[in-house]
Write a structure and sequence with these properties.
homodimer; Aspartate Aminotransferase, domain 2
């Protein structure tokens, strides 16, 4: 007796698949710098915890499937502070950004339909696509172009009769690239021309550096009826374990469909919605400082990576990731080797092999994703260890 | 541009679809007794809230995809107190029982495969089946038989080459029926013979009355390799808004598949897992009293329903629901009418039309599900109002 083919064929998370090796390394007494996962070290703001502690309903009851009214109002208000013209009826609270993406895929496409995603992309999209039964069709972007989108005709080339949507993520995980307004408008133009939905993952909206500007799909009037914006409080409030996200669409048919999916799973967690509300109330008080901290970290990582012989990357524009080309043949093997065979002064580094962030086979074989979610000193130390690791790895392999 | 067919074709929740009418009734100043939804009124135990309030990690971080180790240990210990011989490795913490069911369906079956479910069944299975892309094949049970399972050959009749699993729920939502050990063994026998998985929803395990005994799939040695038990703390701890459930399987292939699905959505809510742990620690201190309360409520509902002319039902054996045959042609219309056109002393009653709990069209047209989740006085009052409503409704319609 066999489990289902779809689950059997699912890839393991490239972010988490080397965990047993890092556990082994730790049990041998090594310190492991985790650059593999986007788990921020920034403390969750106390006002979020305070709201959670103050929750005092006698019964921790089912909430509304679409989220608490006050939570939806809060999200609408937050988005309207950027003049996105959103009503609480356009907002649906989900269990993490993950659920928002799965629901968006299920509403936009049927089994066997296709969704185009620029690659490299957040690897979990593969898992969501498997759950939703849709096929991911990659649109390749390249480190040499700073992972910006290719020409309009390249996007049109991958559209088939089965294509139902284009999924974009900006600021991008894993590349750190911010799509320009022009790129966003190009996507909208193509989507309108070919009757496609746009699923826009904007989880890293605030994580933009050097005065650059993020363009939301909600800013583009022409995309009004065809778009679903997906968001999460995980990174914004350093509250990944809260599992609160949401999706926003101004198309009532989409929202009606999402409600049916949402009713099936009853409701998102109640208490954390209260936490989220407080988060948005006090957002300004900590956001600027947090973004500045990430920009400083980005600088530490980028400046130190540049010094490493044979390494190639562009300066990331936002989010807190960077995809780096290494002078190794197989980044998967290298990442494992760093955990099993290498250390400097009792310390080593865990990175995520980037191959798993591509849908096209063989792509990204010599690339890794680095998440800069540690303090600057640790990051500097980690990149130094990585650099020494590359040197040692290549010496052994050429020996 | 159309949303996906699968979502477009999803039925609305029969439990929630009349909500706009009850909202209207309330805005007209009426009190509405909610017998439509399984939302207990029992206060969530304070030790669960205390654990949540005492959570003090600086970062509310991603937890492990399979749940916190200490949470999995707690579940294993709880199940082992009933001698089910479960290791923490057999336990996977999910976001509510809902996610446990979706994951179980996805692991057991591929798109287009079939899962057999005795009907009437918990209506949200339809939604989960849509999400998982599997077809629900009903096995009809009847109020006259107390909704117990039909003969073995009736079950075998609905098996096709596409059948991958049998899903059972005992104590049953919506019928309150407890499947006997003999019935459970029959299901296991048929499943083994035809190479099917068994998905066993045991959310109401403790909700058994009159000294009756619940049989878990985990008790049946022969089912060891083919079964997935699905559970939730929502009803047990009156904590529906916590969104914590889990699934248990002793088949490592199943657990490996579930882990891949779980990694895609990252993790279940962290803080509520801590709440769950405290819940199980102190379970004995409140469970007996709570079950006695539900049994007393069951008696109030059953005794008062028996007195209503033309109403037929069997005495429910567990859970906190009962499916009742009413002397009306269309229970859907009747349930709506109770909210729009009827009241007694400024009060009316909301019930869930049972048709939506059947997959076979036309079944359950004159049945409703009643959830006895109110105190006994309110329940008595509600059944009296329901009784008067039936009388008035039939007088008008025959007039």
């Amino acid at each position: 007796m066999k489990i289902s083919k779809r689950v059997n064929l699912m890839q393991e998370s490239p972010i988490r698949k080397l965990l047993s090796y890092s556990d082994d390394a730790k049990s041998r007494g090594l310190k492991v710098y985790h650059l593999n996962i986007g788990q921020p070290d920034i403390p969750t703001p106390t006002f979020i915890y305070d709201a959670i502690k103050n929750y005092s309903e006698h019964v921790l009851a089912y909430g509304p499937s679409q989220g608490l009214k006050v939570a939806r109002d809060t999200v609408a208000e937050y988005l309207n502070s950027m003049k996105y013209n959103v009503d609480h009826k356009d907002v649906f609270i989900t269990t993490g950004g993950s659920e928002a993406i799965v629901f968006a895929m299920m509403v936009a496409a049927d089994y066997g339909d296709e969704i185009i995603i620029p690659e490299p992309f957040y690897t979990n999209y593969n898992g969501f696509a498997t759950m939703a039964g849709v096929k991911v069709v990659p649109l390749t972007t390249k480190v040499e172009d700073g992972f910006h989108l290719p020409e309009e005709r390249e996007l049109e080339k991958v559209i088939t009769s089965k294509t139902k949507a284009i999924l974009i993520c900006s600021p991008n995980n894993p590349t750190g690239t911010i799509f320009t307004r022009k790129e966003m408008e190009m996507v909208v133009r193509v989507a309108k021309k070919h009757n496609l939905y746009i699923l826009s993952d904007e989880v890293y909206r605030e994580f933009v550096f050097d005065g650059k500007k993020h363009t939301s799909i909600l800013e583009i009037e022409e995309a009004r009826d065809i778009s679903i914006m997906m968001d999460s409080i995980s990174k914004r409030f350093s509250a990944c374990g809260a599992r609160i996200g949401y999706l926003v669409s101004k198309n009532p048919e989409i929202m009606k469909g999402v409600l049916k999916l949402g009713q099936a799973r009853l409701c998102p967690p109640t208490i954390e919605q209260i936490g989220m509300i407080e988060g948005y109330k006090h957002m300004k008080s900590f956001m600027d400082e947090m973004i500045k901290e990430y920009q400083d970290r980005r600088d530490v990582v980028y400046e130190n990576l540049k010094k490493v012989k044979g390494v190639f990357t562009r300066k990331p524009e936002g989010a807190f990731y960077v995809v780096v080309k290494l002078p190794v043949d197989n980044a998967d093997e290298f990442a494992k080797w760093m955990l099993t065979d290498f250390s400097v002064d009792g310390k080593t580094v865990m990175v995520a092999p980037a191959n798993g962030f591509y849908a096209t086979e063989e792509m990204g074989k010599n690339e890794v994703r680095i998440a800069y979610v540690l303090n600057r000193n640790d990051l500097k130390d980690a990149i130094e260890i990585l650099s020494k690791g590359i040197e040692e790895y290549n010496r052994r392999n050429s020996g």
